[in-house]
Amino acid sequence: MTIRVLLADDQALLRSAFRVLVDSEPDMEVVGEACDGAEAVRLAKEHAPDVVLMDIRMPGTDGLAATRLISADPSLAQVRVVILTTFEVDDYVVQALRAGASGFLGKGSEPEELLNAIRVAAGGEALLSPAATKGLIARFLARGDDGDGPDPARSERLGTLTGREREVLVQVAGGHSNDEIAERLEVSPLTVKTHVNRAMAKLGARDRAQLVVIAYESGLVRPRME
Fold first, then answer.
1. Are residues 105 and 117 in contact, defined by beta-carbon separation less than 8 angstroms?
2. Residue 67's pLDDT band (boundaries 50, 70, 90)?
């Protein structure tokens, strides 16, 4: 199947470069270009892309607001947003993950990293850019907007999970793939996938990135201060 990609960036030159790169792949195609967040939301509704490459800083409606609007629209539940940013780790990125983004990628990433991010996001496995350290991201996620600690609502929702689902969630928050989790827990990858899907359904998570946010904000997993 061809992965349908929407580009959202206020710099025309960058959009052109991304288009050439994406369209050069046999399993991808660019279905639209937006110069701001409002247009990105409109084109997402019009074209129903699999993945939106979203610049976080744009005039008018920025990438953060656009991500919230896309994630909150039930008709766009299949759309995955990957944030593109010059600064890979900042509060905007964390807010974008909370808003529903599947992950983020630095604009300085290699072409193959960008293409891989698109494929990973389309497959529902998106998390974070290869250049971002898990510990640093964890600190930002755990810090929260007000620094008040774990979210009681998130913590309460964890009570719906079985012991094994919680165990798998901890592994997901550690950035491990299904195959790695299966090896660690001595179960099959299919069993892990089943637990992940059930955890996502119970916690209302769109994808694995959202599971990671929930794991940290609920206090189930705490960051390692490295």
1. yes
2. very high
